[in-house]
């Protein structure tokens, strides 16, 4: 059975404030744990009113405290925004608090706009150091060597598993070169999925962390009792993506009956392309869609985004997805760290 995981957006909505979004994320993770999901990740986003996961390591601690066995991680930390030393300290601390459960996915994009990037005191050129920063971070997470004068306390020796995140060929080549697991963001950048995975697998070099390629595929999945119900729920995400093109990234909005009244033909074409691999429908539709994606991409794992406005319906969505995927009702003792 292909493992199934969740990318939690920690959505602030027109009805739920930031604190509510953080508590909802914690509740969703506990629900996912009971259903047999493998991991829950959150991503670093800045200056976005509708997403409350900017302080990613703090959010992960909150979620991990509400769960017992499911893996918790960053999907991801935008490493050019940070000192590798500080990220090692943060995630080493998480690993000490929640041993054997922490993942660290790393991205090269800023996760924000250029104006906010300046507020973070980082420059666009920082991304050029991404490969070297990963090696530096990896070294701080490894056991300290004899005479090592700079040690990331309490991170040294935790060996937190690193992942490379990507939406292009660059991430695939880097993950292959470093021998790290690779997560492709086809939930918003589907165009190069198959090509990127082929590059990753063909160029992969075994490492201490990983002896063979391991690819996780991001995909939007929204499930409801019927196809029509699911399509209506999906309008929340369609409106959020439309907001990207309008330069208006606001709060998450409740679903509407007719999305055609909301977007223009140009916006529809843009959003439809970004969401091209979305799987939306009843459990039967979701099962067929996920099976087809796993077969096409030869995915080792799927990480789903189920961006549903109402929390109870989002819980129901991930429940129906779990049923469609054939997950066990009780979580297995062994979980995949990779």
From TrEMBL:
Among InterPro entries, the record links this protein to: Bact_Lucif_Oxidored (IPR050766), CmoO-like (IPR019949), Luciferase-like_dom (IPR011251), Luciferase-like_sf (IPR036661)
> Per the database record, which ranges form the Luciferase-like domain?
8-297
UniProt keyword terms in alphabetical order: Monooxygenase, Oxidoreductase
**Which region is the signal sequence?**
none
| Highest taxon of the lineage | Bacteria
Q: Does the keyword Oxidoreductase apply?
A: yes
Q: Which GO terms describe its molecular function?
A: monooxygenase activity; oxidoreductase activity, acting on paired donors, with incorporation or reduction of molecular oxygen
Which Pfam families does this one have? Answer: Bac_luciferase (PF00296)
Q: Which GO terms describe its cellular component?
A: cytosol
Question: Any keyword Protein biosynthesis?
Answer: no
Report the sequence similarity comment from the record.
To bacterial alkanal monooxygenase alpha and beta chains.
PANTHER family per the record? LUCIFERASE-LIKE MONOOXYGENASE (PTHR30137:SF6)
Name of this chain's protein: Luciferase-like monooxygenase
Q: Which organism is it from?
A: Pseudorhodoplanes sinuspersici
């Amino acid at each position: 059975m292909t493992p199934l995981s969740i990318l939690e957006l920690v959505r602030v909505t027109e009805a739920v404030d930031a604190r509510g979004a953080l508590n909802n994320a914690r509740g969703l993770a506990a629900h996912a744990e009971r259903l047999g999901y493998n991991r829950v990740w959150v991503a670093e986003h800045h200056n976005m009113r509708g997403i409350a996961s900017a302080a990613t390591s703090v959010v992960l601690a909150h979620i991990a405290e509400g769960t017992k066995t499911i893996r918790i991680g960053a999907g991801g930390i935008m490493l050019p925004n940070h000192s590798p030393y500080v990220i090692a300290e943060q995630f080493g601390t998480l690993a000490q608090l929640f041993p054997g459960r922490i993942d660290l996915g790393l991205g090269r994009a800023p996760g924000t706009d250029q104006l906010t990037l300046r507020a973070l005191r980082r420059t666009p050129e920082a991304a050029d150091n991404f490969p070297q920063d990963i090696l530096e971070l990896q070294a701080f997470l490894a056991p300290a060597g004899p005479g090592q004068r700079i040690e990331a306390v309490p991170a040294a020796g935790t060996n937190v598993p690193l992942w490379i995140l990507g939406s292009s060929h660059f991430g695939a080549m880097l993950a292959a070169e470093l021998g790290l697991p690779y997560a492709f963001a086809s939930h918003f950048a589907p165009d190069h999925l198959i090509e990127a995975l082929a590059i990753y697998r063909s160029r992969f070099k075994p490492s201490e962390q990983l002896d063979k390629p391991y690819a996780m595929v991001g995909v939007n999945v929204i499930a409801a009792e019927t196809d029509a119900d699911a399509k209506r729920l999906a309008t929340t995400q369609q409106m959020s993506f439309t907001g990207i093109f309008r330069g208006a990234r606001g709060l998450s909005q409740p679903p509407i009956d007719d999305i055609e009244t909301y977007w223009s033909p140009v916006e529809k074409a843009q959003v439809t392309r970004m969401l091209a691999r979305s799987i939306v429908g009843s459990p039967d539709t979701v099962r067929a869609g996920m099976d087809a994606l796993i077969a096409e991409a030869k995915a080792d794992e799927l990480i789903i985004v189920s961006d549903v406005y109402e929390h109870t319906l989002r819980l129901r969505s991930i429940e129906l997805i779990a049923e469609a995927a054939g997950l066990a009702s009780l979580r297995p003792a062994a979980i995949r760290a990779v």
